[in-house]
Amino acid sequence: GVAGASADTIELLRQRLAVLHPDSIDIVDDSHRHAGHAGARDGGHYQLQIVAQAFAGKSTIARHRMIYDAAGDLMRGKIHALSIQAEVPGDH
């Protein structure tokens, strides 16, 4: 079912983002909130909270680009929308 696909996508995303050597990573499937939405059939909506030293000195846009680059083809298939909170350890 859908729940299994979601868990797989989260696991894949986690594996891709390992290249950023994150201190912590938290991925939430937010798709249920967008169920009636036009893009909802094509891929899931996910919220990502990631803390990594790799983001030090980078702008928000640069941090997001690093994440999209790492996610690669997932962003063109399984993931329809990704809401990102990218922080450096000690940022908050």
Descriptive account of the structure:
The protein is an alpha+beta fold and 92 residues long. Helix content is 30%, strand content 25%. It is built from two helices and three strands; from the N terminus they run αββαβ. The protein has helices at residues 2-17, 60-71; strands at residues 24-29, 44-51, 79-87. It has a three-stranded mixed beta sheet with strand order 1-2-3. Helix 2 (60-71) links the parallel strand 2 and strand 3 (79-87). The longest helix is centred in the first third of the chain and has 16 residues, at 2-17. The N and C termini lie far apart (37 Å).
Mean pLDDT: 87
Spatial strand order of the main sheet: 1-2-3
Point out poorly predicted stretches: none
Question: How many β-strands, per DSSP?
Answer: 3
Task: Please tally the helical runs, counting DSSP H or I stretches of 4 or more residues.
Answer: 2
Concise summary:
The protein has 92 residues and is α+β, with helices and mostly antiparallel strands. The chain is built from two helices and three strands; from the N terminus they run αββαβ.
